[in-house]
Design brief:
It is a single chain. This protein is an alpha/beta fold. The chain has one domain: Rossmann fold. The chain has 4 helices and 9 strands, in the order E-H-E-H-E-E-E-H-E-E-E-E-H. The strands form 2 sheets. It has a 6-stranded mixed β-sheet. It has a 3-stranded antiparallel β-sheet with strand order 1-9-8. Helix 1 packs across helix 2. It is globular, with a radius of gyration of 16 Å. The protein starts with a strand and ends with a helix. Belongs to the purine/pyrimidine phosphoribosyltransferase family. One of its GO terms (cellular component) is cytosol. It catalyses: GMP + diphosphate = guanine + 5-phospho-alpha-D-ribose 1-diphosphate; IMP + diphosphate = hypoxanthine + 5-phospho-alpha-D-ribose 1-diphosphate.
Length: 179
Amino acid sequence: MDNDIQEVLFDQDSIHHAAVRLGKQITKDYAGEEPVVLSVLKGAYLWTADLLREVDLYVKLEFIKISSYHGGVSSTNSISLVTDIHSDVQGRDVIILEDIVDTGQSLLFLKKLLAERGAKSIQVATLLDKKEGRKVEIKADYIGFDVRNEFVVGYGLDYKEMYRNLPYVGILKKEVYSD
């Protein structure tokens, strides 16, 4: 798999330091609260595990799965809810954990869904923020790294369900995904 990577952008140590930094900030910002942490599957599972180990709060962890890429390298602009949460978020603080905020459409979909369900507040902690890819006006509240407009994989991010297990985030070589 390493041979398919053009460039490593963020190694394990860098990602760990980002988790520590954001974990401390979330702990401070939510002191005395018990937020619902909503991990967006499948991409955010590693980020969720590492970030939550750095958060010193009681949290209720939930997982949600939505789909917008459907196996490709760019969003289809069609968001679908694949697996819903089990918790009631009415009157609760919610922190969405994302692997990457790209077009922003998935995040907008989630924020609207949670707002309709009565969440008291909704914030986003993302490993990667790809501002150049935005198609809608939306922002993350806690950002591990800004990333340039490249197709990245690793550390939970995939191409056709592969590369998620790389211990770093890297740029996938174009010849791997172009026909």
